[in-house]
Structures are given as structure tokens and as C-alpha cells.
Specification:
This protein is of the alpha+beta class and 165 residues long. Helix content is 28%, strand content 28%. The chain has a single domain, classed as Gcn5-related N-acetyltransferase (GNAT) (Aminopeptidase). It has a 7-stranded mixed beta sheet with strand order 1-2-3-4-5-7-6, sandwiched between helices.
Length: 165
Amino acid sequence: MYIRLAEPADLSSLLEIFEHARRFMCATGNPTQWIDGYPSEELILGEIEACHCFVCVDEQSGQLEGTFCFIEGEDPTYRVIYDGAWLNDAPYGVIHRLATAGRKKGVAEACLCWCAERCNNLRVDTHRDNRVMQHILEKHGFQRCGIILVRNGTERIAYQRIINR
């Protein structure tokens, strides 16, 4: 597997990956995290144009197996944290909307490792009901830091990982 920037031509595959992720979340007890068509086609295209959207590609088949958004810099939704605190105030990278096509194991790990190679201070958040993502994050050394509120006002569990090099 390798990771590259997403391109506009990837949009239909990305929409399929997000649809699979929504069905998977519903099936695993998390029916309310990505509702009403979130993430939208417009949001995804905007992230592609901003060079924040990445895809995980199977080297043999060329199929897109996963996607995520990676942004280095301050995220406004992370300014205020409740019931805890960030591990530090140093510059950080943010991982959003990590999703897989569900065909291949290790996609989430590949994405998290790729981000860790580029930034030693990572933050991410997930829905309270997304036990699968919580397990993945904790397995990869992320520490639960508290609660943040996303744009629509709903809570997310905030995680951070500091990589010592």
C-alpha cells in the first residue's frame, strides 16, 4: 500500500468509501457520527483542492482502500477542550475522516503511521460511540485527552499522540 494526495478523479471512489464507512459504523453501534450525507461531496472536493485529502492505494490492484484528511496547523475545534487537557501546546497535525473500503486489513494503521512520519505531535477526535476507532487510536499510542465540540455542537472524544524522535 502507498499513500498519495487525492485527486478530483478519485471522488466517486471516495464517496463509495465513505458510504461503506457509514454502513460499518451503523453495524458496529455508531449510527449517528456521519449522518445526512456527511462528508459531503463539496467538503471532499474542497479538501482535495486544499491538498488535505489523501488516499491509501493497493499497490497490486491500484484500488483505493482508504482515505483520510491530514492538516498541519491549528484546528479551531480543538481550541477548547473539556473534561481534560491536551498533552502540550506545541504545533500539531490533525487527522480527520479516516475511512476504509473494508476490503483490506491495515489501512488505518498505514494512515496513522504515514501521519506520524510527517508530524511528531498528532491530534484526532472521534464519536463516543465509535468504539472501533477508539480502539485503533489507543492501540497506536494515542491518549484520550478530553472532550471537544465539533462545528455542529456535538461532542467528540479528543486524542493526542506525541512521537519522540
